Amino acid sequence: MERIKLHLHSAFNLSDAKVAVMLPTFIMTLQSHMDKIEELLASSDFLELGKAGHTMKGALLNLGLKELADIAYTIERQGKAQDIATDFRALVTSLRQGIDAIR
Length: 103
Hints:
- Helices cover 83% and strands 0% of the residues.
- It is mainly alpha-helical.
- The protein is elongated and about 45 Å long.
């Protein structure tokens, strides 16, 4: 969490007070995006999964979480390609673990 705060300070020049107000909303948004990704994985809607991966990637990059954004990008790219050989379950599990570790 501290890493995210530092990123928000440096990248967007936000005060401690603004970060404190905004951070809970950012975390809830990540959870919402993650829930959507898991729902799309369960329905095997790979094209929509790719789109959701794109949305998640942007949210993660805004928080300075490049490692997790890289996973989301793989979901985006492979989902949009509808590459059924991709182990989406493993990617989504890794992403979920990373998101859960933020809280």
